[in-house]
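Feature request disguised as a bug: please show the residue count (957) next to Penicillin-binding transpeptidase domain-containing protein in the output. Example input:
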Amino acid sequence: MLNLLKNRKSHIFIGFILIFIFLAYSLYDVTITHGDEYYQKSISNRIKKIETLANRGDIYDRNGKLLATSDIGFSIELNSSIVPADNFAEIMIQVYDFLEAQGESHLEFPIYIENGVYKYRYDESIKKWLESNGYDESWTAKAVFDDIRAVNYIDPELSAYEAYRILYNQGKYLPISTSKMLFLEKIYKTTFLKMYGLDADISAEEAFHKIRSRSEFKISSNYSDEDAYKILIFKHTIKEQGYLKYEPITVASSVSKETAVLVQEKGYEFPGFTVNYTTIRTYPNKSTAAHILGYMGKIATETEIETYVNQQKYNPNQIIGKTGIEGVYEQDLHGENGYKYIEVDVYGKYVADVDEAAYGLDSKNASSGDDLYLTLDLDLQVVLEKGLEKALHALQTGGIYDSPWGDYQYSQYDKAETAAGVVVDVKTGEVLASASYPSYDVNLFSTGISQDDWNALNPVNKRNPLAARPLYNSATMMAVQPGSIYKMMTGFAALQQGLDPYQKLYSDGFVEIGNQRFGCWYWNDYGGKHGPTDFFKAIEVSCNYYFFNIANGKDYYRGIPLNFEMNPTVMTEYSKLFGLDSKTGVEINEVSMGLPDPEKKKKTIMALLSNQLHLIAKNYFPEELIDDEDKLNALVSTIVSWSNDNPGRGELINRLLDLGSNPDYYVTEALADIIKYDYFNLMKWYESDTLNLSIGQGDHTYTPMQIARYIATIANGGYLNEFTLIKKIGDVNIDKNQDVIESFDTKGNLDYVKKAMLQVTKGTSSSVNKIFRTMPVDIAAKTGTAQKEGLIPPLDEVAYLTEYLNEIAPSLNIEDVEAKTIEIIKLRSEEMATLEKQKDEAESEEDKQIKSDKLDALIQKDYLNKGTAMRDAIKEMSDFTITDEDLNQFRLPYDNYSWFVSFAPYDDPEIAVVIFIPQGGQGYYSAPVARDVYAQYFNLTPPQETTEVIEIPTVEE
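Example output, currently without the count:
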C-alpha cells in the first residue's frame, strides 16, 4: 500500500478520482438540488417580457360621428443586431440621407458640423436660451440665476432651491440645476463626454474625432467627418442602450405614410430597419368640441405618477388624457396593456420570438379601451362654433353677421375677444352642443405640443380675465353676472309669493334711495318711462322698475306695500330650485360660485378687510405686534370682529388706540376711516342690494352652463335635471336622470314665465322680434345686458403707473416711488423666505400644509409682482389718501356682457339655447347665433334670399 501511495501514477489516478467526484457533485447540485432555480435564471437571462400597448377607445357624437380616434402612425425603428456588420456604416449613411430627403425628423448626434465648424448641441441650446432672455454667451448659470433672483427681489437669505421654487411658482422657468448651479444642458454635455472618457473642457472638434476613432465603432478613415457624423448617430444610440439591445431603437418617431411605404419597399436596402405601426390620437374635426374632448399629454405630475404608474401600472412613457372627456374617462378609454416574450443573446440583442408553450410561459393580449358616445350633436356643435366666431368678428369690426335667415348689422365692440354657447335637451338634460371661442386644434397635443404652439394658446394680457384664452372653457368655467336674464327668476319667486301677473304697476323712471338713484334702462338711456306694466310686458321690455317693485314687495311709485312678502332670502331660496347654487352635473370641469345673500356678502367683505389689514398694519401699529405672526393675526381678528356691531367713528378710533395703534390721533383716524367707510359700512345688506339682485347685477355669478340648466328647467315645467355629456360607455347606456323627479312648480307659475318669454320674440316692443320674425318655430327668449365691474388691467402695470403718476399723485416723483417699491418687494421677499423656511422646518404635515397654503395664496395675488408693489408704494407714500379707484382712473372700462337665453318650440319645448359674449355690448347681439342653431336643430329651410340687413338701435336692454 505504501509503495502504491509513493507511486506517481497512483497520485494522478487518485487526483482524477477526486476531480470526478467533485464534478459529479457539482453536476448533481446544479441539475438536481438547484436545477429548477438555475433553469429559471437561465430563462430569465435569455427571455425578456415585452409590453404590448392597448388600443385607446374612440369617441363619437350621439349619431355615431367620429370625434376622436387612434389613427395608425408610423415610426422607423432599428434592430441593430440584424444589420450586417460589414455594411453597417454604408447602410446608416443611406438611411440618414433618405430621411433628410424626405424631410423627416430623426435622431441626432450631440456634436454636429455646420459650415465646417464643430458644435455641441448642448452649447447651442444654452446660447439660444440666453439670447432669448437678454443675456450673452459670457453669462454663467450662477450669474444668470443671481441676476434673475435680484431683479425679482428674492430674499438673499433664501437657498437657491427655495428661490427657484418661488420663481417657478411665478411662472419663471429656468433651465438651471440649483444644486450644481449649472445649466441643465451643461450637465447633459458632461454626462455625454464622460460616457467616452473625455474631459469636460474638450473642444467639440477634438471630441468628435476622438469618438469617431474609437475601435468599438470601427469607422473607416476613408469616410469624411460629415459621413462619420451620420454613422455616429446610430452607433452612439446603440451604445446608450447598454444591455437592452433587444429593444428596438426609434430612429424617427413620426413619419409620413409615404416615407413608411418607401422604407418597407427598401427593406432589402435597409436591413434591420422596420416600420412600426403606432397609434396617434387624432381628432378629425380639429378644434371642434375641443373644450369638451380635452387634450392628452405625458405622465408628468406626482399625482399622475402615483395614480397611473404606481397604482394602475401604466407604462411611464404612455400618453394619458389630461383634460375634458379624455381626462375624466382615461381609464375607460385606456384599456389594458398586454405582454409577450422574446429571446435575447448574452449581449441583450434580439434573437427571436419565443415559443411560449415550450417554456411554460403565457402571453397576454392587450384589451382595447371602451368607446364613448357623447350626447353632443356634431353638426349642431359646428353651427354653434361658427356662429360664435362670426358674431365676434362682426362685433370687433362693427361688421355684418351674415346668415341665410337674414344679415345683421353690429355696432363695434372691439374689446369682445371671447364667447360661449350651450345647447341642451330640456327633457333629458343631455348637452347637445357646448362651445367656447376661441378654441384650439386638439391635434397639437397628440405627439407633444411645441413651446411656440403652447405660447400661442396663452392670453396676451394674462391680467385681463376677459382676454381670449383658447385653452379656457368659458361655458363651464367663467362665472359672471347674468343681468336681465335673471328677471324670470325674480318674477317666478314673486309669483310663488302671490304676485298677480296681470296686475299693472306703474313703472316710473327711477327709484331713489337716500341720495342714490336706481334707474330703469329706458330712463337711463332715453329718459323714458314704461308706465303701467304687468309681468308679461316687464319681461318683454325688460323693465327694471317693475322688478324693483316686486323684489321688495313694494309699489315704489305709490309708496305702498304690495300684497305679498318678498326679500333677498326668498329670491335666493327659489333660485336654488333652478340649480343656480350648484354645479350642473356635466362630467368635465366646471365651477359654481353660489348664490348672493346678505351673509355671503358680509363674509366676503370681512375676508377683504382681513387681507387689507395684514398689508397695512405695519403703518399703524408697533413692530412688536407686527413682527409676531400670532399677535398680528389676533390683532386683525379683533378688528374684523367689530364689524358685528359696526361702532361709530369716534368709538372705532378709541378702540384702535386701546389696541396699540399709533398714538398720533390723525394717523389712527385715517385707519379708522378705511375700516369703517371702505369695509364696515359695506357689509350691511341694503335695500339697494336687493334692487341690484332683482335685475341680475351685484353678487350674482353663474356660468353659461348653469344658466342653460336654469332655462331648461323653466322650459320643461320645473324638472331640475342633472346635465350630462355621456350617452354610452362601451355597451352600457348612461341615463343620469332615469329616477323619476317631481316638478317643483305645483302652482303652474312657470307657464306665466314662458308666456312672458314668448313676448320677447313675438311682441312688437322688442327688437329681438326683428331677428326671429322669419323663423317658422315659436321661440321664447330673453336678452341680458349685464355690467362688468372694474376696469381692464393694463398689460404692464409698472409702465401704466409710471406714465400716469403725475396725474394720479402730483406730489410724488417716480424715483422715490421706485425706491419704495423695491423696499416693499424686499420686505415681501423676506416674508416669503420666512414662510419657506417655516414650511421646510415644520414638524407636522398639518403645519407644513398651512405654511404651503399661505405661500400659494401670496403667489396667487402676485405678492412679489413689481406692479402690485408699486400700487401699494403709491398708496403708502400718500398716507393712503390715494385709493385703488384713483390708481385705476386711466384704465379702460369693460363693455357689457351680452346674454341671450331661449327655448323652443314654445308649445312643447325640446331644446334650450344660451349664448354669452363677454364685452359683447348688448344682449340682442347674441341672438343671431341662437337663431342659426335653431335652424340647424329643426332642419328649417330659410326664406327666399333677401338683401335686407337688420339694424338695431345701439342702446337697448
